[in-house]
Amino acid sequence: MAKYFDVHPENPQRRTITTVADSIRSGALIAYPTDSCYALGCQLGNRDGIARIRSIRNLDDRHHFTLVCQTFAQLGEFVHIDNDVFRAIKAATPGSYTFILPATKEVPRQLLHPKKKTVGVRIPDHVITQALLSELGEPLLSSTLLLPGEEAPMTQGWEIKERLDHSVDAVLDSGDCGTEPTTVIDFSGGDIEIVRRGAGDTTRFE
Q: Band of the pLDDT at 56, cuts 50, 70, 90?
């Protein structure tokens, strides 16, 4: 059964955040709120966690996983960014955007798009996520909590606990969070491509 953590939305309890971060380091798969919607998350090199996310969401190997980063400097360790792209992403973060970029060697091979060798990265504007990332000290491997056959992501912690009780190890609930997935912008092909229109305003990329 998944552990359920009720977290204060503005002042998250340090002990709870530390407990969850420790569980992630020990191999846990969690469901957690972000500035767009709930996501599934595990440690970067957690092969079992990756397999469980694929199973829960019924994903194939072409799916772009996302590395959720605390800072821009951390993000830069895992993707290649030229000057023009740097300025565009810098202006839009933190926020509800996922950016597809060529991955560095720091990214495990199983996370890469098999042909493009790219990965998704983002910096969320969310108190709980930022607190967790700060405690963890590394990016969180993530994917939107959108179940197969459903058009909208799950948004209620108690519902996630009920439906995924035997599929995840922990659920963080800080009350209402977003209802739309991130806007996905692909910079890997030279031109800017809006892959998905979501919570982030696309005007700056059009």
A: very high
